[in-house]
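Slide 14.
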Amino acid sequence: SLVINKNQSAIGLISMGTGGINLSADSGVTAIAFADNSGQNWGTGTLAITGVSNNEVSFGTDANGLTADQLSKITLNGSTEVTINANGQLSATGGGGGAPSGGNKLPTGVVDYVTIVKNKYSNPIEVLKNDFDDDGDPISLVSASSAQSIGIIDVNKNKGTIVYIPAPEFTGGETIIYTISDGTDESKGVLYVTVEENSIPIANAMSESAVEDTSKDIDLSASDANDDSLFYLLVDNPSNGEVSISGNGKATYTPSSGFFGTDSFTFKVNDGMDDSLPASVTILVSSNDTDNDGILNASDLCPDTADGVAVDLTGCPIFELPENNNSVQVTSASCVGSNDGALKFSVADSSFDYSVRLIGLRSQNQGISTHEILGASNSISVTGLSEGLYSACFSVNGHPGYEQCFEVLIEQPKPLSAFIGINESSLTTNIELEGANSYHIEVNGTEHDVRGNNFTAALRTGINNIKVSTDKNCQGLVEKQVFLSEEIQYYPNPTIKDVNVHVSGKDKRVLVSVYTIKGELIYSREQEIKDFSRLTEIDLASQITGTYVVVMESETVRKVFKIVKE
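Slide 15: predicted structure.
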């Protein structure tokens, strides 16, 4: 971009080629002259002149100062319709050239260039980004068009952008003339779009190093002449490991367990249109544990440890005892809520002095205590413990790297649970039990010692008393009283006078209470049950029509029923 100042006199050489030149005239400039113009065409080069009026720019002294091709590459104040007169002076005949109105300075549209790939539309092109207005007025995008009409021009006036969609399979150039406004006057700008063939992306071969049993992150390499976004794809997996590739080119290679040597995988990239040729990534995996002790070389302070020797985190031999050297014996609490549980800690090899650290994890004994097993002694007991979960860790004095831990559970008897089910039709009870191994069950004064979790017993009509307990009084007592009534039959119902009631069982008398449907007592009296027929009567002869509630009670009978008097 060149700016011509007022009263400036300069001699310079401009070489036209690829790209464009933006030439703007400062305020007060009234004449710009180009001389000795070459007759050679300018190729794809363009010249955009702004800030002048018609006939203020001249090439030579006559109409031959420019070739037709050169003239087509010039815009004057944004107009592409530029002519040269007999004096070599330029005029804009298609709008945008000429003086601004009312002293307002025209906005200046600076030439834009964009290159896209065949069959792909452009990103939004911010054509206003390099345009300017000498008055500082805000510039807006009004419209855009192309005389060539090759592609689709999508104008977003609100954002001041243009999206160009080329015709299918088209390659070449298209010139787009866009109109800008400063709110008072309009000017033209030029957008040159070049559509070229897609360049196939290139995936680059790589060499990497990794360490045995250790994952390796790799940034894959590729390029694209069109600067398209690339998507990375795995082609062939490695032979001695696994690899994952994300679309953005991040790869993670994980060698197979214990493998070291040379491995490889291949990948390709895609630019949205074409795949690259596959490229290979070669990985040299080095051994990470020369003495096979399980400690990486970088952390191994004893790199020549013999096979089979247990080592610590530094790779040096550690003190060990047999897995069964230490043991814990548990004594459960005697009853619910009692704190009389115990733990006995024992060791097989008593040639060492031991410390046992006891921690209450989920128990009333939440503290930490330490207990010693010294000299020839091979055990120690800790008593007075509540129910719960404990951690017991054995260590050997003088060997700080040794520790063996156990989680032990001190249990307590569960509360007694007895679900007493009643079968009235068979006059039996079925009791489901939980909380002990053996139970004491009393049914109507008869005691039963039961082992297991289920018990069935016969019941009688009338009142039944059931009691369930265990050997431990602290587990509690479950009691239930059940009344099972003898069956009755009554007829007729509905009735016009009395009702006969047949009462099963052996009771000789029964209390009969008759109520209205509203609950008002009509009568209540004890009646005899006939020995042979087992019948008694309900006297409704003197009662009005309606529904009556009858309650019958005796030692083995409890029944409520309704009678309809007609």
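Speaker note: Residues 95-99 have pLDDT under 50 and may be disordered.
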